[in-house]
Design a protein that fits this description.
Elements: E1 13-27, E2 42-55, E3 58-71, E4 74-90, H1 94-123, H2 136-149
Antiparallel strand pairs: 1-4, 2-3, 3-4
Length: 158
């Protein structure tokens, strides 16, 4: 009897190779006048994720967060960060891999992006911005439902 494991199922493995800021920007198009306004902002937060295969079992995932804060109809600031990671992911079927890239990896990247946004906003002279936690599993499920309802529409490019 041989110890040949070539027919053994792939072992599921997940690892983080690197987490990094891919891109960031901060704009205050209406300063210094915006600092004279009463601070009663409206805040809009947009999230998007994108994943791509780099090599066999190696994937880059990018979480983009854009925060637009306005006072009345004037933009107080616009902060955007692309927080990225390189992940080693092996042994998962297509559905599990899609879930890892669409939900699990962004969940790992989010605290880094949240900290970067908070730091940018404070350095810009504005009150602290703390982003609320995000349920990436719910967002991923919503994305899957939208794809099932509109299968012929191309996915947006971010």
């Amino acid at each position: 009897m041989s110890d040949d494991n070539s027919n053994a199922p792939d072992v599921k493995q997940f690892g983080i190779q690197k987490i990094y800021t891919r891109d960031l920007s901060f704009e205050t198009p209406n300063s210094p006048q915006v600092f004279m306004e009463t601070w009663e902002p409206t805040v809009n937060v947009d999230l998007s994720t994108n994943g791509k295969r780099l090599n066999e079992g190696v994937h880059e995932v990018v979480l983009t967060i854009t925060v637009t804060t306005k006072i009345k109809d004037k933009t107080a600031y616009l902060a955007e960060v692309q927080q990225a990671g390189i992940f080693n992911i092996t042994g998962l079927n297509d559905q599990e891999l899609s879930h890892a890239i669409g939900s699990f990896c962004p969940g790992i990247l989010f605290p880094y992006a949240r900290e970067t946004i908070s730091d940018l906003v404070q350095r810009g002279g504005f009150p602290q911005m703390i982003l609320a936690p995000v349920n990436f599993d719910a967002l991923y499920q919503q994305h899957l439902q939208q794809r099932q309802q509109h299968p012929v529409e191309p996915e947006p490019v971010h």
